[in-house]
Each structure stands twice: as structure tokens, then as C-alpha cells.
Design goal:
The chain is α/β, with parallel strands linked by helices. The protein has a single domain (about 10-110, about 120-135), classed as Nucleotidyltransferase, domain 5 (2-Layer Sandwich), CATH 3.30.420. Helices cover about 25% and strands about 30% of the residues. Strands 1, 2, 3, 4, 5 and 6 form a 6-stranded mixed sheet that branches. The longest helix has 15 residues, at about 65-80. The radius of gyration is 15 Å and the shape is globular.
């Protein structure tokens, strides 16, 4: 986490952002499923990044795993490597008891504004898109 220190941040993050991305894959190797919401047959990349967009945890899962279920794995994996994370920002796909009770990390659901129509950049969540662009 030398990069965090280089820009004047503490080495270990205290906040993170959770998100996922479904990607098409072939039948050869790795987890595979069908994400009916995105109409994608392949994998889902469950990811946790710090609030600047640096990747912390990347967990590939079958695409048919729901975000709230897949988040539990990522949250538990984060505890050993990043014990100081106390809060995570996520979209409404992570609402529910499972992510909220998986660890001591508090999940804050970032909701869209009531008057929003179409796509809009949401505070705290946009950094994940930069990470997905980097790994693609």
C-alpha cells in the first residue's frame, strides 16, 4: 500500500467500495453461470476497492451468484489483509442481512437520487469503474 502513502493516505484503508461485474467466458476452467439480470453466461467478478479505486480483493464467482451472497465471501476475505476497514459503500444489490452480518464492516447503500433518470455518477461508487477498466 505504498501507493496510498505516496499520495498522503494511511497505508491501510478504513473505507472501501463493493461492486461486481459480469463477464462472458468460455466453458474452459473456472467458475461459470448465467446472470439473468445482465443476460451474460460466464463469471462475476466481486471486487472490493479502496475509496481511490485501488484493488483490495478480487473474487471470481459463477455469474449466477447474487451480489448480496457473493459479497459475504469478499467481506470475510478482506478481514485478514485489511483489518482496519470499518465501512463499505455499495449499490442496492448488496442490501440484506447476509452482507450486513458477514463481518463487522458497516455496509452503506448508496442510492440514486429520486429525480435521477438514466446513468449518473454516484459519490464513492464511481472508483470501481476505473478498476474494472484497468483489469479488462
Amino acid at each position: 500500500m505504498a501507493d496510498r502513502e505516496r499520495v498522503g493516505r494511511e497505508a491501510s484503508p478504513t473505507a472501501a467500495v463493493l461492486d461486481s461485474q459480469s463477464v462472458k467466458t468460455t466453458e474452459s476452467g473456472g467458475p461459470r453461470g448465467y446472470d439473468a439480470g445482465k443476460k451474460v453466461k460466464g463469471r462475476k467478478r466481486q471486487v472490493m476497492v479502496d475509496t481511490d479505486g485501488r484493488g483490495l480483493i478480487l473474487e471470481p464467482q459463477p455469474a449466477d451468484v447474487q451480489n448480496c451472497d457473493g459479497a459475504c465471501v469478499v467481506l470475510r476475505l478482506s478481514r485478514r489483509a485489511f483489518p482496519f476497514i470499518v465501512q463499505a459503500f455499495a449499490d442496492s444489490g448488496y442490501t440484506g442481512e447476509a452482507p450486513a452480518q458477514a463481518t463487522s464492516i458497516r455496509i452503506e447503500i448508496v442510492k440514486k437520487r429520486p429525480d435521477q433518470v438514466g446513468f449518473a455518477v454516484h459519490p464513492r461508487r464511481w472508483v470501481v469503474e476505473r478498476f474494472f477498466a484497468w483489469i479488462s
